[in-house]
Amino acid sequence: MATLAIAALAFLATHLGISSTPLRGVLIASLGERLYQGLYSLVAVAILGWMIYAYGSVSHDDYLWYPSPALQLVASSLMLPSAVLLAMGLLSKNPTAVGMASAVRQDLAGIFRITRHPVQWAFLLWAIAHLLANGDVATVILAGTIGLVSGLGMLSIDARRRKLDDPDWQAFYRTTSTIPFAALIGGRTRLALGDLNWVAFAAGLGLYVALYLLHGSITGVPLR
């Protein structure tokens, strides 16, 4: 369990201790944007792999709360919007994603009128779902770490982008929201059905079905 905890701390340090602090700017100035992004991505993927490996190597019999059919049902329900948000976020030009900042000058895909961070929300919902469904210490460390990075990552991205003295970014933040549907409810933007990428939506539904059917093969724990 100690190895998992160390890997989780390294994952937090990489994401929140570098990308969310002035150290990021120092590294970019020293290495250049492209080299920094390349090295950062390699390190982040390596640490994520280490954390997943450590998670698979520890006992899952130490519970903080016990799984129940009700919690598993809630978890399965949360995974549906998670899969849809992930697919729609990845299959659309996302201004807040690495290397896609220029997309802020184009017409925004409909998903960003719902939330400007669909991919981060997808991972946060995934984390909450697995915390609820499992309840063991190892899952709390793994899913809690990923959820924390996703939630704080949204705040970090917004804090960094809001400082840009660029009318396109200012308009982006005026007409979008981090909390899903908040900008729509507040009347700061509008959404028509034609604005949504329905192919990406269908891909998200397909991803959900695939994960549901293959969960046992992937994790060794079939969904009931």
Features:
10 helices; 68% helix; globular; 224 residues; mainly alpha
Account of the protein in words:
The chain starts with a helix and ends in a 5-residue tail after the last helix. The longest helix has 26 residues, at 137-162. Helices cover 68% and strands 0% of the residues. Helix 1 packs parallel to helix 7. It has helices at 2-16, 23-31, 33-56, 69-90, 111-114, 118-134, 137-162, 167-175, 182-185, 198-219. 31% of the residues are buried. It contains ten helices and no strands. The chain is an all-alpha fold. The protein is globular. The chain has two domains: 1-58; 61-219, no CATH class.
Major sheet: none
SSE ordering? HHHHHHHHHH
The total count of helices amounts to: 10
Number of strands: 0
Structural shape: globular
Strand content: under 5%
Q: How many independent structural domains? A: 2
Instruction: Write down the overall mean pLDDT.
Output: 87
Layout of strands and helices, then pairs:
Blueprint: H1 2-16, H2 23-31, H3 33-56, H4 69-90, H5 111-114, H6 118-134, H7 137-162, H8 167-175, H9 182-185, H10 198-219
Helix pairs in contact: 1-3, 1-7, 2-3, 4-6, 4-10, 6-7
Summarize the structure.
With 224 residues, the protein is an all-alpha fold. It has ten helices and no strands.
